[in-house]
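FIELD: query
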Amino acid sequence: MRKCVFLMILVGCVTGVFAQQKPQYTQYIFNNYLLNPAISGIENYIDVKAGYRKQWQGLEGAPVTSFISLHAPIGKNYLYSNANSFSEAGDNPMNRSYVQTYQASEPHHGIGFHAVMDKTGPISTSDVDVTYAYHLGITERLNLSLGVAAGFSRTSVDLSKVTVQNSNDPVIASQKSQFQPDLGAGVWLYGPTYFAGISAQSLMGDQQVAHLFATAGYKVFLAENVAAIPSFMVKYLISLPTSVDVNLKLAFKDKFWIGGSYRQDDAIAAMAGFNISSLFNLSYSYDFTTSALRSVSNGTHEIVLGLLLNNRYRVTCPQKNW
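FIELD: result
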């Protein structure tokens, strides 16, 4: 049975070389930057994250994804002396008083970089992009940012792991390694208790299919320092079923959070995260497979480490992107 499932995955992967699909992330709410370049520079520090995802553990050739991302605001005026600044010790964004005194960001630029490595069976894909965003406070409590991403995508096939009738077939040989330009864009709206964004990826290249994302979330206070954050993500690709993720996160002050997620016709997930200090945080999720693969899959693990560099105000969790 496992071999049959692997063969089905392999066939889909080889076909997918002509139209690569971006990796799936359970913890999208923890790093929406990977989906939307408009988030570049949203925080008042340098945001660094590294992650690893092992999908459908126990199934040979299943996807394994790793990534690293970095983004930051540009300009000392924004970093050190603007209406978005707060006390030296940092304010707790899960506190009602923070929401009451929230002020929109002053106009500023943000830049960033992310690299994603994904391997499924004999196919390896590397995506590298640089990003830029412009943030603007359009009211006292509402921010708008626009962003773009540009880079390249490299896809390679390890032909030693593929059995074909004619290894000299020019179609097969041409898939050994390919480079494609990559272009993306996004819009992000955010305030003290909400966020919403739309973005597009893979807008260039003959062998890439455009990805469209829509995300939104809202913060509901259950107590002075406890907040529930329901959110969702919709992913659309031409000729493939629309994917819908629904997420609920419970954040306790700025110390830790727990949550759950449901992905339509695919998985349910449990998540937890810890803001260990003003330097780094850590989160983990485990997906319980609900699709037909559940008979051969031991689930999916995903872990993300975050660093808050140049964190002048010693905040221990995101202020604008939660």
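FIELD: remark
The longest strand covers residues 123-137.
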